[in-house]
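User: My instructor asked us to take a sequence, write out its structure as tokens, and then describe one feature of it. I'm not sure where to start. Here is the sequence I was given:
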Amino acid sequence: MDKICLDTDFLIDFLRGKEDALFFVSRMEDRAVLATTYVNLYELYVGAYKSENSPRELTNSEALKNRLQLLNLSEASVKLAGQIRAELMKKGSIVEIRDLFIGTIALVNGFAVKTNNVKHFAKIPNLNLM
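Assistant: Let's start with the prediction itself. The structure tokens for your sequence are:
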């Protein structure tokens, strides 16, 4: 069974009812493990609390969270993040720290990442992007 970690931008598309995101989830829900990270959940909460429709946005974020497996930081994921960030810094490149954490959490747990932000995640070696 496939294992797919849904990134924040994809989750927002889903919450906004975008057809391609709704179709992807409906197609994959029965044949893949769908997950997100606590980092993504944090980003959803920030957006919900900033929203003028905060109570509704929070309710929608909670309902979505309950449909997904939640992946957390671990010693292995932060060690890998440190290694990758150091290597990128030596090359004069950088990945936003939240994206780096999301990517390494997915990687150490054997998940591909479904994102619209391929540019940032592509810098994480061996990470399967969708």
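For the description part of your assignment, you could build on this observation: Residues 75-90 form the longest helix (16 residues). Try explaining in your own words what that tells you about the chain.
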